[in-house]
Fold:
Amino acid sequence: MLPTFRKLLLVAAAIMLAACGSHGTAVDTIWTARYVVTMDPQRTVIEDGALAISGDHIVEAGPRATIDAKYTAAQRLDAGDAIITPGLINTHTHAAMSLFRGIADDLKLQEWLDKYIFPAEAKNVDREFVRWGTRLAVLEMALSGTTTYTDMYYFEDTVAEETKRAGLRGVLGETIIGMPSPDYKTPQAALAGTEAFLRTYGNDPLIVPAVAPHSIYTNSDETLVACRRLANQYQKPLLIHLSETKKENDDALSARKKTPTAALDSLGVLNGWTVAAHGVWLDDADLAILKARGTGLAHCPSSNMMLASGVAPVVKMLMLDIPVGLGTDGVAGSNNDHNMMEEMDLAAKLQKVSTGDPQALTAKEAFAMATIGGAKALRLDKLIGSIEPGKRADLIAIRLDQPNAVPLYNVYSQLVYALKGADVSDVMVNGKLIVRERKMLTLNQPEILARAEEYRKSIAAPLTRKTLASKTP
Ligand SMILES: [Zn+2]
Structure:
């Protein structure tokens, strides 16, 4: 080929490329990877995939060549040998308890709560504790792929502030409980505080404010009914622990002659947008009630195993089409981490071992629970939980270039049984990149880890078993 002709061809190619580019629709970001796992209704998996992202939302997902031909982007990200999936959704936790991580393990729930957690909280939890505990938790969550989390704790306005600062999405509710809490002396005061919180965050792009009565066994009927009324008045979710332990069920049955679910339902507490955590001891009649009320379930396999609470009837829930998501629960003796990659693995294996059926909960179903199922349980599935045009750009990239990631025969198998939280490389929430190559861009990791250690020193000294035992009535 003559050099001049070759030059001409190159010029022509450049002009064609420029023309293609100028005709492509402008988007903010094109993000590419070896696989895009969409979790759309068809469970589309795109090999050599790409996403076009504009502002806070996904414009389109498709093969790289298709997306490149249709769009021009201000920014290009290439995750390379990786899977892009919807961000993981943690449907139940108490984030700031991260500062109590491992403080009292290997105990029964009631003993753990009464002898260790409630006294430790009464002694240590203030606004600064919640600030640093939440920072530690959201750092850990983001670095292991969680983009949305659901929280019930204290000083929830500070939790919201820190969640927004970190750039995560949160469904957040101040714990309403029938005893003096670190920030409110009475449940009435907590309800008033919750109403102010609902007003402040009612239209926030990242925060869904919620009403969060702790449980049926820690609140009066009047408080529970008032919580429901408030949640419905503001069209926001009610978060509650439900049938977590056999004791909770036995107590309700002896005092009320009803299961906790039936008792809450007879009070009207389930009439509306509700997310119930655990549901270990739900019977068939309870499940029918939850199905009829559209209640979402937060299944917490690590917590249920560690506190020996039991095995939630997840297979039955899914057969009834009750929306089920996964939750880590708090990390102070009931997990002890905020790692959703671990929850999905355990969720699948727990159903297999408890039913004797290896097909009881498949990898694909477990991954759905961590993404679109969680979104449905929170009733946020119009916004998040899958990669579809118009949904919020809550996305993660998980590396496939590690020994535990090869060879790859099936993406769902790899995601649930082989990949780890530490394989998550990049995280985007609401169109904004908050983790890049395993570095949290919005938080100061060394400072947070150092402060957590300082808290450990001040908390650990007085919190010996002996001291606490002597304080317990
Ligand atoms: Zn909990």
User: Anything to note?
Assistant: DSSP finds 18 helices and 17 strands in the chain.
